[in-house]
Structure formats: C-alpha cells, structure tokens
Amino acid sequence: MNAPAERVFAGPLVVGVDGSVPSLRAVDWAADEAALRAVPLRVVYACLWERYEGAALAQDIGRTTALPLAQDVVGVAAQRARDRHPGLEVSADVVLEEPEYALVREARHASALVVGTRGRSGIAEMLLGSVSLAVAAHADCPVIVLRGSHDNQATPPVHGRVVVGVGEDAKESAAVRFAAEEARRRGVPLEAVRAWRRPARETTDHPLLVGDAARLHEERAAEELEAALQDVPEDIEVHRRTVEGPARRVPVGASHRADLLVVGATRREGHFGLQLGRVAHTVLHHSACPVAVVPHPAHDA
C-alpha cells in the first residue's frame, strides 16, 4: 500500500492553558512562536470539571455561574500574549471537555500546538503531565512541550541552535523539515544528531567488518544523516554530528545546548495507543529544553 502524503501544517498556533504557572510560561513561549510564524494565536482552556463541579465552586466564592472562572483563565492568558506582542492577533475559547481530547481536536486545524508541563506532586519539571503526553502522542500537528529551563521565550535565542534527532529512516523528513524552518525563523544554526551503536554480539570476523568495525557503523550513520538532510535549504547553516550511544539518550544530551529539540513520531491510521516511539517518549520526559514532536505517517509497503 502506498504511504499517505504528509500533511502541510497550516492554521493558527494553539496554546493550551489551565491557569497554572507552567501554562502561563507556555503562553509567553507560544506568543513568541506565533509572532515568528506571523500566524494568529489561539488560547484554549479545556476542562471537564467546569461542567460538573464549576457551579458548586462558583457558589462557594459568591458567583452565580462557573463560566466566568474559565473565562478569567483564558482572558488573563490572552491579554498576557497581547501585552507581549501588541500586534499579534489573539483569540481565546473555553471548551467544556477533557483537555487531551479537546486539544487533539484543536490540532486538526493548527499549524502547531504548545503545552506546558504540569507534573503531579509538585514536581512539574521532573514529570511530564498526562495531558501533555497524550496530546504529543495523538495530535495531527507538531506539538511543542515546554520542558526544561526555556526562560519563558522562544526568542531571542538563548543557546543559538535548534537540534533535530535523526532516526534510521531517511524518508521520515517531516521532523527535519520542521527543524530547518524553526532554525531559519530564529536565525540560528540547525544541529542534526544521529546516534549509532555497534551491536553487542557482533564479531569482527565478518568479511564486511574486517578492520575497524566501529568505523563502519559510524560511516553508515553519517551516510544516513546526510540522506536525511539532503533537502534542507542551502541558506541554513547545518552542523552534523554522529554520536555513539543509545538513540534514546543522545538527543537528551544535545538538549542541554539547544533552544528547541525536534523529534519525529509515527502516526499509524486506526491505531489508538500512545503513538510515540522510544526516542520521543524519552526526550519528552528528560529533555533540558522545549521539545517539538512532529508527526509523520507510517510508510507501509
């Protein structure tokens, strides 16, 4: 069966908010990103409990309806974005639905979606919240999860580079293309990282491995990296790195010197489980900088 065509991401930039400090940091970052892209910003507050518990809470604080509580959340967030970028077109909406479902639906019409981390038990920067994980695993557009210390900004650059993790399949170009565009918008170099390892049980008496076995694996990784970068525009400065080590850990190491780490995630039609590979899952939990998860279709034979 032929592989489905990759989607062209268009529409507004969407940011999910919930009134927490991490979500306000996400608003700042999303406002910068929307201004970079010259697209509108859409602020969305999705919460099912407003429908069932909001009336009781509103009564406790002397209000007749719960809706103003939710409207306050999006109102403050939207005004924060306008204050940060006065010329930015900002809209806001309240959705009475589970956040993960509402945001995944919003992603169908978005150029990208931004969410903050909100782990439980007061360790938000150590644990990825379930909403962020679910959205990154199912959204149809790129999802940017604001992990690590990003100084509440997409611009100006702090480290001065965008990093993309390149996998074994050079056909999976969506993440590379997204990363190249982000590097161009920021005016910074693109660093492409490809991890490689020699199989633990490999012997050196194989005719293809006579001599320097490790060198052959590294050269193969370099060739795959070059193939993945063949369509990157020439005006973008590209740094290539092949690193020996686990594919799940190498991008995490690179995140310490990046403003944004980009990884791909395969979307399989009709599959309802968490559609994140091991690399994407690991970086979402351990990256030192914001992570962009870029979906691409499965390449079926």
TrEMBL record:
Q: Which Gene3D superfamilies match?
A: HUPs
Question: Which chain regions cross the lipid bilayer?
Answer: none
At the top level, the lineage of the source is: Bacteria
Chain ranges of the UspA domain: 13-147, 161-295
User: Which protein family is it in?
Assistant: Belongs to the universal stress protein A family.
Instruction: Specify the protein name.
Output: Universal stress protein
